[in-house]
Structure formats: C-alpha cells, structure tokens
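Supplementary notes for students who missed Thursday's class. We covered one full example, reproduced here. Read the sequence, then the structure, then the short commentary at the end.
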Amino acid sequence: MSIIAWIILGLLAGAIAKILLPGRDPGGLVGTTVIGVAGAFLGGWISARWLDHPISKDFYDGATWAAAIGGALVLLIAYRIMFGHSRD
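Structure (token representation):
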C-alpha cells in the first residue's frame, strides 16, 4: 500500500478506535485522528515485526485493518493515561 492508503487507513482506524473507546480525549478530533494514523503505522510495524504477518498490499485485508485499529487503540489508551486529566 502507498503512504496515502496508510493515512486513509489510519484516519478510519482512528475513527473506529474512537467509537470503540468513547469519551473525551485530551486532543479532540484532530488529536484522535493523528493518533489513528500513528496507530496504523505502529500496528502494521508490530504485525510485520513480531507477529510474523507481513504487511499486505491489499487495502481490504482484515489482518491489516485489525493491526491498524489495534495500534490506534493502544496509542489512544496510552494518550489518555498520560494526558487524560489535562482538561479538568
């Protein structure tokens, strides 16, 4: 997949992670979107590096989507833990 496809995948993964993990985020919509893109890259890297599942060149591969959403969830949870109380 191209870098543009990974960015689109990250935007969608961030939105899905936000739906799965509702609540107020310290960064709002833009922060969640950036976390989704970074999570897609992180999930793809972890999948290729340690789970022995190389990155698919197909945008519609379920494992690629699962890795992207999982990476976005991990980063969103970590972001909430580190900066979750900054808006109080």
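Commentary. Residues 28-49 form the longest helix (22 residues). The mean pLDDT is 78. If anything here is unclear, bring it to office hours.
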